[in-house]
Amino acid sequence: MAQQTNVEPILRDYLIETFLPGEDPNELKNDTPLITAGILDSVATLKLVAFLEERFNIQIDAHEADAEHLNTIADIARLIHSKG
Amino acid sequence: MRDSVSSIGTVERLANVSLPGVAKSTQRTFVLTSASIPLILVQLLLLIGLVYKYSIENTAFLHVLEIASIGFVIQLFLPERWRLKWFVAVSLICIAVIVGQEGLEWNLRVGLARTGYLLGIGGLLIGACHLPISYWARAAVLIALGSLAAVFRSQILPAPALDPIWPILGSMFMFRLIVYLYDVSHEPKRPTITQSLAYFFLLPNVCFPLFPVIDFKTFVRGHFDGEPRRIYQKGLSWMLRGILQLMLYRLVYYHVAVDPAKMANGTDLIRYLMAAMFIYVRVSGQFHLAIGLLHLYGFNLPETNRNYFLASSFTDYWRRVNVYWKDFILKIFYYPAYFRLKKLGPTRAMVLATVFSFVATWLLHSYQWYWLRRQFPITVQDMIFWGVLCTLVIANVWWEMNHVRKRTLGKKRVTLRNRLGLALRVAGTFCVLTLLWSLWTCDSLKEWLSIWKVADWRMFAYGALILLGIMLASLTLDRDVSLWAQLVNPRATTSFPARYAVAGVIVPVVLLLLIGTRWTPAPFSGRVGEWVESMATSKPNARDSAKMQRAYYENLMDVGRFNPALWDIYTQRPANWKELNDTNVIRRTNDFLGAELLPNQSEVINGVVFKTNRWGMHDRDYTLEKPVGVHRTALLGASHLLGYDIAYEDDFDYLVEQSLNAGLPPEKPKYELLNFGVYYYSSLRQLIVLDRRVMPFQPDVVMICVHANDQVWTVEHIADAVSRGIEMPFPYLTDIVRDAKVDRSMPLSEIKRQLEPFAPAVVKWTYRQLVQRCRQAGIKPVFVYLPLLGSSSVDTNSDFSQWAIEAGFTVIDLRSAIAGHDQRELVVASWDFHPNVIAHRLLADKLYAALLSHPELGYSAPSSKAPKP
Q: Given an 8 Å threshold on Cβ–Cβ distance, is B401 in contact with A68?
């Protein structure tokens, strides 16, 4: 979907810039695990949530700040789109 | 659902199968080969053998492991859709087997009834989570139900039928219910009944009261979410890892741990600190066993902890030491609190949410203790431990919020400078955490402050060596092993890592089984042999054996809280098991003796009628005046002589009396053996009993019955008297107290520590006094050395018989009476190491023979027509 394609590059750029500076963006795939692989800890997850809420004007609930919803770029994109 | 392959033995490829309860769009392909499953079964059999050979954990765990293993084999033949139901069935069978233990026997009716109670109460709690009301209303309902349960748990309202199941019910529901309510309230899809039952009634939980807080969503989604053989292999590897940790813990427990009352220098202090840090290794071992076992049923769960000794910061430690607990707190407390508070700004929200999470952690630990042991400890050490850790974590998190932590997608590229910096941070974190753990596990803050008085250059020297070792370990060990990473990654190749199974599990298990097995000569002797023996021992060490014996009598509140060995013992004890302090046969005295039996009492204690005669002896009646022509013996001692948990007719002194009088009319005995035993009586207390109570009975022989704890108890009794401000019964002891420079303002452990160097002299003096008083009264003194059951043989380095000989006693050593016997068959129960009827019979036989071999004492065998004992 076009919207989904627009979201993923934004997410990738943010993740690389904020948490993985100097890493090759091409290595960060849509299914690369972030939380389960330890790239995002609780502090980073909350930073990501703050970014998503501000950037996409959505409200994320506490129970959505977990691996099910934020573990990969694909998961995050799905969450964004579920917020309408 | 498409057809699935259900047979093994031939190479077949399963059609794509979709898993119930797993919200995945990817179809997975599973392959069963003829080689992999037998290899898995071989590993499982070897692990069972290892558990049996090294007495890993307790009998309950062995039963669960055996049942679970049989269930696993059957599961291999079951269709996919039946597996979760089968897991529930096997779990319930395990529960029924374990809860059906009634005293020392198993009862099917009791097992089924108690399982029914568990299911009924559990079903009520689960059902409350699905009420068609709001989340907070459901939480209120659960709090109300929990409060009602607490009323019964506290025995405010009686429910004796439920008393035995509260610890298990608590362990299963106290945390998982919170997670379950949260998840079902936020998930659109309702779980199936099978999923709910499987989640709560997990089969390993029935034998591990301390259990990881498994996340419900993770539990459901992880069920066969990868290639089954890899899941099984991961589980088996973790089970071995758990067993190795438990063995390592035992080595530390028996050879490193030191009683704070016996610390003499900086080396002892370092040992104490390291042993405190290692307590968690035991918990980690149990967690690995439990989670590993769940893998056999397809639950691909995450690791429980990760190299927590090598944490580089306090947040890192928090994230590593108990991953399941960390995730639980994050999910239920930290994130909800943070999201509500984030309008205050990220830093304020983080601080407040972190404080809230640590307060919750602190209180939940006590809440857990309440359900498991019916106590709610709130101690200063707890507050300091959690408070300091919270502060350190906040500081770390603040730093992480304001600095970018280096992360990578691939292999980490680190410079030597980075590595050294990391190593130093790891060493610093380890140092601080060691101090915190030592404080948390100490009996009191006062005691913790007092232990530093023994610090000297040795503490710094050995401490530096240990920290250097930690730094080296952080540079070399804290990384993913490529094979391991491949194994745990469900996206890795589907080939079965047979060489890993062989090298990682089979070879080490076989080696461990061969060490010291009865079929091969014991390859190790001396110190190494002791280490091997201690890895196979589950008994308390000397310190805890003494503590346990005190706990029988003093209801020590927190015995077992940081003591896994005693914890194991107490969790096996039935809820209605009585200690002497819970009965009417004894009363505490505010003097040096501490307690005495009451006269003319009769009470059923743990199924046995305990009677005292008019003189307050656990024995038949005797006249004060010695009958003419009777040879009278007075036996003095502690509970091993007293005959706790047995009728006096089964006590060894009574049996010997019967044997000596065999063939004589009961009303005209030739020999009388009077049992003056009272629990927890050292030889020092027996000296007081000799003066006050024994002499009026005009004995011909006095037998002082002692076991390996005599010196330990001597110190404890003096220390206890000092601490309570009780006057010393002898001027000699007053001098000792003065020379030891102790007073009641000191913590008990420090008093003992100061008295310890004087202990041998006090014991020798006591023995000399006993002999002297006996000889002055024309009494023959005999020293009877009893075996101490339930203690590790590694600790039996106490031998008082030489001191007794030097004092002038005739010495009779009964320790060999139990030689060649499995001590587990000689104790009253696995939670009560007093000698049982069999042990008393062995002691009686040995004592009888010894008395006849000492004609100077005045005993002779009955006539040849009399029956032998």
A: no
Question: Using a CB-CB distance cutoff of 8 angstroms, which residues of chain A are in contact with residue B334?
Answer: 42
Measured CA distances, B568 to A74, B56, B58, B116, B830 (Å): 47, 12, 8, 25, 9
Q: Is B675 helix (H, G, I), strand (E, B) or coil?
A: strand
**Angle, helix A2-19 to helix A42-56, in steps of 10 degrees:** 140
Residues B253 and B201: their CA atoms lie apart, in Å, by 32
Q: Does A21 touch chain B (CB under 8 A)?
A: yes
Q: How far apart are CA B130 and CA B189, in angstroms?
A: 12
Token pair recorded at residue B14:
């399963």
- The torsion angles phi and psi of B828, rounded to 5 degrees, stand at -60, -45
Give the integer Cα–Cα distance in Å for B787 and B767.
19
Nearest to B409 among A20, A43, A68 (CB): A20
List Cβ neighbours of B610 (8 Å cut-off, separation of 6 or more): B583, B585, B601, B602, B603, B604, B618, B647
Reported ipTM? 0.93
Q: Are A27 and B409 in contact (CB < 8 Å)?
A: yes
Q: What domains can you pick out in chain A, each with its CATH number?
A: 2-82 (1.10.1200.10)
Q: How far is CA B839 from CA B15, B682, B786, in A?
A: 62, 21, 11
Domains of chain B: 82-220 (no CATH), 564-857 (3.40.50.1110)
Look up the pTM and report it.
Answer: 0.83
Q: Phi/psi class of residue B699: alpha, beta or left (left: φ > 0; alpha: ψ in -120 to 50)? A: beta
Q: Does the distance separating the beta carbons of B346 and A42 come in below 8 Å?
A: no
Q: What is the mean pLDDT of each run of 10 residues along chain B (869 residues)?
A: 30 31 37 70 93 86 94 94 96 93 79 94 96 95 95 89 89 96 92 96 92 96 91 93 92 88 92 91 93 96 91 93 95 96 93 96 92 86 93 93 76 76 93 94 89 93 93 76 45 59 83 67 65 71 66 53 62 72 87 93 90 95 94 95 90 95 84 94 95 96 93 93 95 97 93 94 97 97 90 55 94 91 84 90 96 93 59
Q: Which of B608, B615, B659, B656 is nearest to B782 (CA)?
A: B656
State whether residue B364 is helix, strand or coil: helix
